[in-house]
Amino acid sequence: MIALPSIAFGGFSGSAKGVTARQVGGRSILSLKCYPTGYATAAQLVRRGALSKISKAYKNLSPEEMMAWENLAEHTAGSSVFGQKAKLSAHNLFVRLNTNRAYCGEGELLSTPPASLVAIPAVDFTDFCISENCVMFIGVPDPEGELKLVAKMSDGQSSGVSNAWGKTVIISPDKVPDWGEIDLTDAFKAVLGHSPINGQKYFVELYWIDPVTGFTGVPVQVSWICQDGSAHTGRAMAKRTTFKNSDIVDDDQKFITDLDVEFAQGSTIITGDIKYDATKHNVQEGLCHITKEAYDRIGSNFCSFMLGRSNANAGYMPHFFRTYAYKMGSEYRFVCAKGGGLWDKIGEVFGTSLTFEFVN
Amino acid sequence: MIQSTGNNFGAGVITFKDYQSEHEIVLNGSFEYLDTTDAYKKADVLEIYLPDLSLSRSAISGCYCAAKGPYAWMGTTAKCWIKNRNTLCIEKLDVWTDRPERKIWIFALFGLRGFHDLQVTLETLKTPQLAQSELLGYVQKKYFYANEHFMLLAFSFSELTFSKPYEKVDLITNADEDFPDDVDAVVPFVTCQCDNKPGCAIIEGRFKDSALLLSGVPEAMSYGTGYVPFFYAWLVRDGGSGPAPDVDGRIRILVTSQIQGSVRYTYIYKVDMDLVDGRVILNGRMTFNLNSNREAYFTVPSIPDGTPSCDAFLLAKNGNEDILSFGLVEVSLNTQLGAKSIKLTNVNNEPYFYGIAKDTGVCATLEFE
To answer: Which of B116, B200, B231 sits opposite A138 (nearest CB)?
Structure first.
């Protein structure tokens, strides 16, 4: 409705253009319509898209359900302002938890509140790096339960800026630690469109979210000037020594469909989880070309031994494989060659081995 | 040895022979269970609960699982991993719904992921000596690696052509100098198809004293083209090849690989000798190459005090796998006037002698010229 003749007079309520007038406790409150500023990441678009729907859904709750939300809201603190905790209304709590769940892809609305408050820990880590080719936190312990990590980052600010937390956007809503590592390099580039720039300051906020209840942990905030070397040791934070799908050259010799190999300490341990489809290959092996950059991570030909099997259609025939990488002319090959078992063209290779000097 | 404290699929107490360190674990063991128990039906992943392991988790490793059929255990490979310090997980691969008796063999190496700044170093593989005959078919692949704690043994046959079912066959007769003789395990050996159920027949063998003795070859096994029977296992060593404890009347002398001066083809890979029974008997295990000189001297790093100079003759076979010939090598230990050396002499007519000796001889007092 349009409020006339002027929303400046008391007793009126309604909206005119971008201004809304309402009566609260006998007082007139004017508020401006809010428009989102800055980047709208995919996660934020989900949240904005879901916000209106979730907000309206509250009205459809049964009285008992509303009462349950009110009971929980009484025990839930909102943002702290000047040291005094604000209280959340039942409606606010309903919207907050359900939009958090929407972040994590939980489509169904939570009509009854979680049975109790859930204590979510703060994100812990041992070191981090923001450099031009690496945005990474390491030493992140696996959380208990199914928590996901939400990462917010600002774009580069002048190194003298001390507070740009308001400019952070969600670059990743659902990370889980991969052997203690949270790698945000690709997420940063995908959302902000470029890599971090040396000398600029970045603001990062990390917190856990429970996709089931929608509760979040206390955010951990760090700001750091982009530079080579990690924050704590100053050493370049090298990536783990791996062969991944992104290392496979996309050519007509690509018979490995999923490559996940990593090297680790020990007597140089190699672990692998590999799938192959050699339907168009006339040799009893899964084969692909890898990039020179990938080969150079090891720097020489090597071999190892793992178990494997054909897929269900071929009757789960057991195999053992010689998995190896070698340089041939200007090509670099990664191969899972059948060592034993009844060969089938589609299957998987998995296991842990030591890494050996290459043998034929 | 470690024993399970429980499991979630209704098996009894499970025992593993283990080697555990900061970065790796090797577990050896097998166990049976029934797929008819409520516990098994409820389990999404099979979990075995263990006393504290040295790793808090591991990457994926591999094991063997099978169901008992009319002729043999029919099985395949399955993923396994350490979930936390007290839980070993095994993929539940339920593809034999009409066969309730199940068995799992774990002869696996477990390791970690997540290391940065890693410098990859490579280990060296060796080649085991496998019996090869019409009875066994032809060896296709064969590898072994051993350190002082555990070993890898992997090999395959192009076809396994046992002439009679249930025949016992000695598969490995290894005389390599470094091939461990301190592994004792009942191990799985993957063979061929039996009854058109998923997987292949898995038979068991006893790996002991550097030899693998197979038994129970299924009567109905198909030997069709394309089946490549194989063995692949990480095996925990008992530690028997380390320095022997002090035993009264026993002297042990170990020499690692040495080349004699600059003579390229005169060397020893390893010498391992015991002098027992009042230093009258000499038991030697050694691999050597005397291709350039009839005599070669090598330094012994450590000789127990009071060890006399002595001399013995040992029988040695030709070190080339495919050549069946043998000869004598004279072993002379010199401790005179503080010397610590060993002399190997080729006492055969042939001038070149690449040999492997595993023999016991009577010691004579070493006479100096």
So the answer is: B116
Preferred mutation among B25, B60, B158, B187 to probe A, highest tally of A CBs within 10 A: B60
pLDDT tens digits along B139-149: 788 899 999 89
Contacts of B55 in chain A (CB under 8 A): none
How many angstroms separate the CA of residue B6 from the nearest CA in chain A? 22
Cα R_g (chain B), whole angstroms: 24
Higher pLDDT, residue A59 or B16: B16
B-proximal residues of A, 14-43, CB under 8 Å: none
Structural domains of chain B sorted by starting position, each given as residue range(s) with its CATH number in brackets: 2-111 (2.60.90), 139-236 (no CATH), 251-365 (2.60.40)
Question: What are the distances in angstroms from CA A12 to CA A17, B265, B326?
Answer: 15, 107, 114
Specify the pLDDT at position A4. Answer: 42
Asked whether A262 and A271 are in contact (CB, 8 A), the reply is: yes
Which class in CATH covers the domain with range A242-357?
Answer: mainly beta
Q: What is the pLDDT of residues B198-207, one digit of tens each?
A: 898 898 888 8
Residue boundaries of the structural domains of chain A: 1-35, 37-117, 127-225, 242-357
Q: Would you state the structure tokens that stand for residue B228, as one six-digit string?
A: 């490549």
DSSP state of A291: -
**CA pair distance A5, A197, nearest whole angstrom:** 53
Q: What token pair was written down for A53?
A: 């729907």
Which CATH class, in words, describes the domain spanning A127-225?
mainly beta
Q: A195-247: per-residue pLDDT in tens?
A: 999 999 999 999 999 888 888 888 899 999 999 888 888 888 877 899 999 99
Residue of higher predicted confidence among A90 and A294: A294
Residue B97 dihedral angles phi and psi, to the nearest 5°: -65, -25
Tokens of B139: 């060896």
> In angstroms, rounded to a whole number, what is the distance separating the alpha carbons of residues B102 and B187?
16
Phi, psi of A357 (to 5 degrees): -60, 145
